[in-house]
């Protein structure tokens, strides 16, 4: 069964239709994402309806495609390993998020920014197949979906969006269809969830604190012991290192260097 045929969802399975569209969108450029998106769709559909003839037809098509794809790609670590698969998806979501966030903060508001924020959040929905997600990923997912809706609503109403994290989602969730592109929709974030996430701003090059001449013992004391790195920044630095490692698997040197640089800056920022 082709990807387009897998888009024919019965009404009761409408909740997964957008995830199937994500799979079709990535089928030609990163089929690993298609695989996990369809597996997520299958798992979700089984919880909704696995008895009606219409649902069974779709489920059977998904199962056949997933089985064939896994068999033909058994040597792909991003398929055989949940860790590698999750790293690839999170890396793709992070690239989309960083593109959207940088444009948002620069005041560049357009449909591509909306789509990138939204798709990043949706790809992180798919990451639920790997189990419990970290607090950072959950926060990033909620923020990305809310930001997509916020910018879309502002542009639709002829208003200029406010860059960066602000307020909450006052107008309710917006679907991919309403945004004007076909990407899946996951759970809509609440105002409490969206207003607490502030995407990291990379610190400027720090300067080490002066050392008092009368305290020779300080000359050999590591600066990090004075200003320990916060647990939150350590987690984020680890994320960037993981994304860099995933990027190297696909010979994406630019993304690898960007993420390693961000990890280093997060850690060095705590020495100032």
Report on this model:
By secondary structure, the chain is an all-alpha fold. The chain has three domains: about 5-80, Serine Threonine Protein Phosphatase 5, Tetratricopeptide repeat; about 85-195, Serine Threonine Protein Phosphatase 5, Tetratricopeptide repeat; about 215-270, Single alpha-helices involved in coiled-coils or other helix-helix interfaces (Up-down Bundle), CATH 1.20.5. Helix content is about 60%, strand content about 0%. It has twelve helices and no strands. The longest helix is centred in the middle third of the chain and has 24 residues, at about 80-105. The radius of gyration is 21 Å and the shape is globular. Residues about 170-175 and about 180-220 have low confidence and may be disordered. Keywords: Cytoplasm, Endosome, Membrane, Protein transport, Transport. This is Vacuolar protein sorting-associated protein VTA1 homolog. It is found in: Cytoplasm; Endosome membrane. Belongs to the VTA1 family.
In the predicted model, the low-confidence regions spanning at least 5 consecutive residues are: 168-174, 182-220
What is the CATH C level class of the largest domain, in words? Mainly Alpha
CATH homologous superfamily name of the largest domain? Vacuolar protein sorting-associated protein vta1
Return the domain count. 3
Computed structural class: mainly alpha
Helix content: 55-70%
Mind describing the biggest β-sheet?
A: none
End-to-end CA span = 58 Å
SSE ordering? HHHHHHHHHHHH
**Rg result:** 21 Å
Question: How large is the count of helical segments?
Answer: 12
Whole-number average pLDDT?
77
Strand content: under 5%
CATH names the topology of the largest domain as: Serine Threonine Protein Phosphatase 5, Tetratricopeptide repeat
């Amino acid at each position: 069964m082709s990807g387009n045929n897998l888009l024919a969802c019965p009404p009761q399975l409408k909740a997964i239709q957008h995830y199937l569209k994500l799979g079709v969108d990535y089928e030609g450029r990163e089929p690993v994402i298609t695989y996990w998106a369809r597996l997520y769709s299958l798992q979700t559909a089984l919880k909704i309806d696995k008895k009606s003839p219409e649902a069974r037809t779709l489920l059977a098509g998904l199962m056949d495609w997933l089985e064939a794809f896994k068999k033909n790609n058994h040597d792909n670590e991003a398929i055989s390993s949940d860790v590698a698969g999750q790293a690839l998806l999170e890396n793709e979501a992070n690239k989309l998020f960083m593109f959207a966030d940088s444009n948002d903060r620069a005041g560049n508001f357009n449909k591509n920014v909306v789509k990138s924020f939204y798709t990043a959040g949706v790809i992180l929905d798919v990451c639920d197949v790997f189990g419990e997600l970290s607090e950072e990923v959950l926060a990033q997912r909620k923020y990305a979906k809310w930001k997509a809706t916020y910018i879309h609503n502002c542009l639709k109403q002829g208003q200029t969006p406010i860059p960066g994290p602000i307020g909450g989602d006052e107008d309710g969730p917006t679907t991919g269809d309403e945004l004007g592109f076909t990407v899946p929709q996951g759970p809509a974030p609440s105002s409490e969830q969206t207003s607490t996430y502030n995407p990291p701003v990379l610190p400027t090059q720090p300067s080490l604190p002066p050392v008092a001449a009368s305290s020779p013992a300080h000359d050999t004391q590591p600066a990090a012991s004075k200003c320990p790195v916060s647990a939150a920044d350590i987690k984020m630095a680890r994320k960037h290192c993981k994304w860099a490692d995933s990027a190297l698997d696909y010979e994406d040197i630019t993304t690898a260097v960007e993420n390693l640089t961000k990890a280093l800056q997060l850690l060095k920022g705590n020495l100032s």
